[in-house]
Amino acid sequence: MGSPSIEVRGFSLELGGKPILRDVSLRVEPGDFVSVIGPNGAGKTTLLKCLDRMLHGGTGTIAIKGKPLAAYRQRDLAKAISYVPQADGRSLPFTVMEFVLMGRYPHLSPFSSIGEIDRQAARHALDLVGARGFAERGLGTLSGGERQKVFIAAALAQDAEILLLDEPTTFLDPKHQAEIHGILRRLNREQGLTILATTHDINSAAMTSERVLALKEGSVAFCGTPHEMMTASTLERIYGKPFVFVAHPQTGQQVVVPEGATC
After folding, report:
1. What whole-number distance in Å separates Cα of residue 201 and Cα of residue 172?
2. For residues 95 and 176, what is the distance between their CA atoms, to the nearest angstrom?
3. What range does the domain containing 53 cover?
4. Domain CATH number, residue 53
C-alpha cells in the first residue's frame, strides 16, 4: 500500500497562547473525499492552513504524500497540494483567465513567462468547472457561484493531486451550491483528485463524502463514514444539541431537517 496523501499524527497548535488544535490525527488516502465538520471555532480552517503551511509551528507531525511537510520547498508543496479559501467578497482586478493562470506559479521559474502549456492547463481547468465561457470577463463581474468556480479552476491549474477547500459553498444560493457539490464529486470520481473540504452543511458532508472528520474545541470528536456520523448520539456529541432526521426520498440516506419541521 502506498503512502497516504495526507497524514497527521498527534498535531497540536497554539496561537497567541491559546490552544487551537489538540492532538489531531488524520489519514487521507489517495482519491479520498473527506469532509471536516464541527462548530464555529473548532479549528477546521486552522487545520487546512497548517496542511498548506500558511500557518507554521505546532507539535506532532504532518506528512504530504509520505514526505514530512517541513521537508517541502514551497514551490514543490504547491505542486502537491492546492487550496481554495473561504469567499471574502473582495473584487480582484483581473480577468478570469489572468487569475487562473496565476495558479501556474509552481511550474514557472522567476525568469520564465507563461507559455502555451500553461494556457492549455488553464483552459482545461476552466473546462473542468464549466467556466470556459467567461474566461475573458473580469472577476468583479461574476456572481458568487461563478467566482467560486474560477477559484477552484485556479487551484486545479496548479496540477496538484490534493485539493483543500474551506467552506466552498458558503454564501452561495441553492443552485450554485448544487453546482459546486457536483463539480467536486466529478473532480474526485473522474479526475481522481483527493479532496479535503471543511463545511457547516452536515447534509452535504453526508451525501458527498466518503469519510467525515468532526472537530470540537480543536480535538477530533468523530472520524468515520457518513452513515456512522448521521446518528442522533454522534451529532449531539459534536454540536451539543439534538437533531431530527428523515430518510432522503431519493437515496435513503439519513439527512438532518430543521427542528419543528413536519415530515
Report:
1. 12
2. 21
3. 6-89+161-257
4. 3.40.50.300
Question: Would residue 129 count as lying in a domain?
Answer: no
Residue 240 domain flag: yes
HEC per residue, the chain: CCCCCEEEEEEEEEECCEEEEEEEEEEECCCCEEEEECCCCCCHHHHHHHHCCCCCCCEEEEEECCEEHHHCCHHHHHHHEEEECCCCCCCCCCEHHHHHHHHHHHHCCCCCCCCHHHHHHHHHHHHHHCCHHHCCCEHHHCCHHHHHHHHHHHHHCCCCCEEEEECCCCCCCHHHHHHHHHHHHHHHHCCCCEEEEECCCHHHHHHHCCEEEEEECCEEEEEECHHHHCCHHHHHHHHCCCCEEEECCCCCCEEEECCCCCC
CA 250/CA 238 separation, integer angstroms: 27
205 located within any domain? yes
Instruction: Provide the number of structural domains found in the chain.
Output: 1
**Residues in CB range of 2: below 8 A, 6 or more apart:** 30, 66
Query: Per-residue confidence of the chain (263 residues) as pLDDT tens digits?
Result: 678 999 999 999 999 999 999 999 999 999 999 999 999 999 999 999 999 999 999 999 999 999 999 999 999 999 999 999 987 767 788 999 999 999 999 998 777 788 899 999 999 999 999 999 999 999 999 999 999 999 999 999 999 999 999 999 988 999 999 999 999 999 999 999 999 999 999 999 999 999 999 999 999 999 999 999 999 999 999 999 999 989 888 888 888 988 764 44
Q: Which residues contact 189 (CB under 8 A, 6 or more apart)?
A: none
Residue 72 lies in a domain: yes
